Every structure is written in structure tokens, then in C-alpha cells.
């Protein structure tokens, strides 16, 4: 019996190698003109931090999204075609004419595109370990030569290295916009942006009406957000110079995941992934009705 078992387990071992190997070997991070992303495939960033692929909502609409590879409860951090879902059962994300990236539905209609002027270079689209999904020349990985990047078109989530605010060189203003409901990525009523008209500060807007503000940057943090004091796992940065007025954060240790979200109820949440409990721990959250408006009022910043 012992021999039989060990044969069985040897067989199982070889079988599992055989069975899993093909999946491991096709884990790619890049779409090329000859290799589109089809419905049942995903891209996985080089260090296996993020995964990009198709996902369905309850009513069967199909979207391209990015989620954390290592977190089982899917946490979407970016959605491409949030207002133009595919309503058929299939689609392809592909590079056309060695140029732009397009998402086509089952009958080949383009529902979403990177929509950049033609550059006449052979392009590839790559998912990076920082969540940025970039369209770049095939043989050129330099950041300044990206043709298009998802970081310029955030959904409802700010991740380390992403910027909110105004890029004066490209003219792009980056803001977060909530999902319509927790299971519908369609653009909702709430947004979260860096106000660059005066002393820079973050604002939550309901449609275009301001409902919450952080108070201006005081050199270290936003003055109305006392929760930022003593947080030592991340660093907050505000840049105000001739190139940009922007806000971003970085993790001291990149193996700790954190995200800043504007949810579909207009609540601004700072979350940190706890590996031991496998849950997103809430560091702070703000909405119009919460206590913290009181703090803002006391320092004279309330509405
Ligand atoms: C994708 O996977 C689903 C479920 O595994 C399967 O039913 C479907 O036929 C697959 N589609 C394609 C195009 O491979
Ligand atoms: C997607 O691309 C694959 C491979 O090129 C092709 O066989 C398939 O018909 C395409 N599907 C759609 C929906 O365009
Ligand atoms: C259902 O699908 C439509 C697209 O046909 C989309 O606009 C709508 O927001 C979706 N609703 C939900 C709850 O997913
Ligand atoms: C916000 O704007 C959307 C579309 O412009 C509208 O449907 C919605 O009712 C507005 N919400 C509020 C609270 O004004
Ligand atoms: C980062 O955190 C991980 C655990 O989450 C730990 O194993 C690793 O040593 C840390 N790295 C540094 C440079 O502190």
C-alpha cells in the first residue's frame, strides 16, 4: 500500500506540474499588436501585484478592470470603459494599426479607446507593478515617452505614485470619480479633487458642489485632517511648481497596500490591507455628515 500511495503521489505531483505549468507560463503583462487580450485571459504585472482583465457586473455588463492579484475578494482599483460597458458576452482589448489600444465588443464595435494622436511607432500596452497601465513604444520603457497611461484617467481610487491635480505640461487634471453604486462602475455623483485655485486642498464634490474639504496643505499634511498626524507607514507629498500642482502618497514599504477611495455614497476613505485578518482596515473616512466637519469648523475651515 505504501508503494501504491507513493506512486499515486508521484503521479499527482507530475500531473500537477503538467496541469499548472501552462497557466504559469502564459502569465504575461503586455498586449502587443499580434496578441490581444481576449475574454478569458488576464495580464499580470511582473511582480504579481496587479491583474488586469474583463469582469462582469450583476446585470451582465462587461468591463476591463484592474484588481490586486494577491487579494481574493476582488478589489477594483481602475476601470477602463466605465460608461461604455460591453453588453454582449465577449470582447477583445487590442492594439490597432500598431497605434492606439481599443476595446471591441463581440461584433467588433469599438466601445473604448486610448484615443491618442497617431505617433507612427509600434506600440505595446503593459501593466506595471504600481498599477499603471501604459501604452508605450515597443522598445522604449521611459516614463516620459508613454503615449497613454491609466494614471491620467483615475477611477475612484488613488494608489501610491498616482497623482491628483493639475499636470501643466500635458494639461491633464486628475480627479477621482465615484462608482454609481457599489456594484456599478458607471460614473457616480461624487468626485474628489485637488483644488488648485488657491492654497491647494482636497475637496469632495457632489456633482460640482463642494461638500467636504481637507483644509489647505500646511507643508506636511492637510491642515484639517488630524488623522494624518503620526501615520508612519506612508508619506504624503504636495508638489506646486512650474510643471504641476499635485498630491500623491507613497508607502514606506511597498509590500503594504493602501488606497484612498471616494465611494458611491460620497465617503472619502483611507484603507490599508491587513494580511493577517484579510480585510481592508479603515484608517479614516470623511463625509459631509461625519464628526470631522466639527474639527474643520473649529479651525475655521468648515463650510
Ligand atoms: C470563457 O470561460 C467560460 C467559463 O469558463 C466559458 O464558458 C467560455 O466558453 C470561455 N470563452 C471563451 C471565448 O473562451
Ligand atoms: C478576439 O481575438 C481573437 C484572437 O485574435 C479572435 O479569435 C476573436 O474572434 C476576437 N473576438 C472578438 C470578440 O473580437
Ligand atoms: C447595467 O448595464 C448598463 C449598460 O447597459 C449600465 O449602464 C448600468 O449602469 C448597469 N447597471 C448595473 C447595476 O450594473
Ligand atoms: C448630479 O448630476 C447627475 C447628472 O448630471 C444627475 O442625474 C443627478 O441627479 C445629480 N445629483 C444631484 C444630487 O444633484
Ligand atoms: C516590508 O514588509 C514586509 C511584510 O509585510 C516585510 O517582510 C519586509 O521585511 C518589509 N521590508 C522592509 C524593507 O522593511
Automatic annotation (TrEMBL):
InterPro entries, alphabetized: Bulb-type_lectin_dom, Bulb-type_lectin_dom_sf, S_locus_glycoprot_dom
The domain of life is Eukaryota
Where is it located? Cell membrane
Which EC numbers does the record give? 2.7.11.1
Q: Which reaction does it catalyse?
A: L-threonyl-[protein] + ATP = O-phospho-L-threonyl-[protein] + ADP + H(+); L-seryl-[protein] + ATP = O-phospho-L-seryl-[protein] + ADP + H(+)
Which stretches make up the Bulb-type lectin domain?
A: 28-148
User: One GO molecular function term?
Assistant: protein serine/threonine kinase activity
Coiled-coil spans are: none
Where is the secretion signal located?
1-27
Keywords, A to Z? ATP-binding, Cell membrane, Disulfide bond, Glycoprotein, Kinase, Lectin, Membrane, Nucleotide-binding, Phosphoprotein, Receptor, Serine/threonine-protein kinase, Signal, Transferase, Transmembrane, Transmembrane helix
The family database entries (Pfam families) matched by this protein are listed as: B_lectin, S_locus_glycop
Membrane topology recorded in Swiss-Prot or TrEMBL: Single-pass type I membrane protein
The main place the protein resides is membrane
Q: Which PROSITE patterns match?
A: BULB_LECTIN (PS50927)
Top-level class of the enzyme under EC nomenclature: transferase
Transmembrane regions listed in the UniProt entry? none
Naming one, the record's GO cellular component terms include:
plasma membrane
An example of a Gene Ontology BP annotation on this entry?
recognition of pollen
Does the record carry Oxidoreductase as a key word? no
Q: Does the keyword 4Fe-4S apply?
A: no
List the SMART domains hit by this protein, alphabetically: B_lectin
What is the protein's given name? Answer: non-specific serine/threonine protein kinase
Taxonomy of origin reads: Eukaryota, Viridiplantae, Streptophyta, Embryophyta, Tracheophyta
Amino acid at each position: 500500500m505504501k508503494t501504491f500511495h507513493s506512486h499515486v503521489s508521484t503521479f499527482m505531483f507530475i500531473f500537477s506540474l503538467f496541469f499548472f505549468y501552462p497557466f504559469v507560463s502564459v502569465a504575461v503583462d503586455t498586449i502587443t499588436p499580434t496578441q490581444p487580450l481576449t475574454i478569458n485571459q488576464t495580464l499580470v504585472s511582473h511582480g504579481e501585484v496587479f491583474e488586469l482583465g474583463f469582469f462582469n457586473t450583476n446585470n451582465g455588463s462587461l468591463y476591463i478592470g484592474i484588481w490586486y492579484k494577491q487579494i481574493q475578494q476582488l478589489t477594483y482599483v481602475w476601470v477602463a470603459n466605465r460608461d461604455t460597458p460591453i453588453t454582449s458576452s465577449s470582447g477583445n482589448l487590442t492594439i490597432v494599426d500598431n497605434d492606439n489600444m481599443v476595446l471591441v465588443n463581440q461584433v467588433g464595435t469599438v466601445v473604448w479607446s486610448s484615443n491618442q494622436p497617431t505617433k507612427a511607432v509600434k506600440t505595446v500596452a503593459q501593466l506595471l507593478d504600481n498599477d499603471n497601465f501604459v501604452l508605450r513604444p515597443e522598445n522604449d520603457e521611459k516614463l516620459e515617452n508613454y503615449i497613454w497611461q491609466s494614471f491620467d484617467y483615475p477611477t475612484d481610487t488613488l494608489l501610491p505614485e498616482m497623482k491628483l491635480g493639475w499636470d501643466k505640461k500635458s494639461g491633464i487634471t486628475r480627479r477621482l470619480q465615484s462608482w454609481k453604486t457599489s456594484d456599478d462602475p458607471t460614473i457616480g455623483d461624487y468626485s474628489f479633487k485637488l483644488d488648485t485655485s488657491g492654497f491647494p486642498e482636497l475637496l469632495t464634490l457632489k456633482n460640482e458642489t463642494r461638500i467636504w474639504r481637507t483644509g489647505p496643505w500646511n507643508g506636511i499634511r492637510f491642515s484639517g485632517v488630524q488623522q494624518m498626524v503620526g501615520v508612519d507607514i506612508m508619506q504624503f507629498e504636495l508638489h506646486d511648481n512650474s510643471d504641476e500642482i499635485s498630491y500623491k502618497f507613497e508607502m514606506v514599504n511597498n509590500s503594504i497596500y493602501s488606497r484612498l477611495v471616494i465611494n458611491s455614497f460620497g465617503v472619502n476613505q483611507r484603507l490599508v490591507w491587513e494580511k493577517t485578518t484579510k480585510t481592508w482596515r479603515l484608517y479614516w473616512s470623511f463625509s459631509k455628515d461625519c464628526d470631522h466637519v466639527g474639527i474643520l469648523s473649529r479651525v475655521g475651515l468648515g463650510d
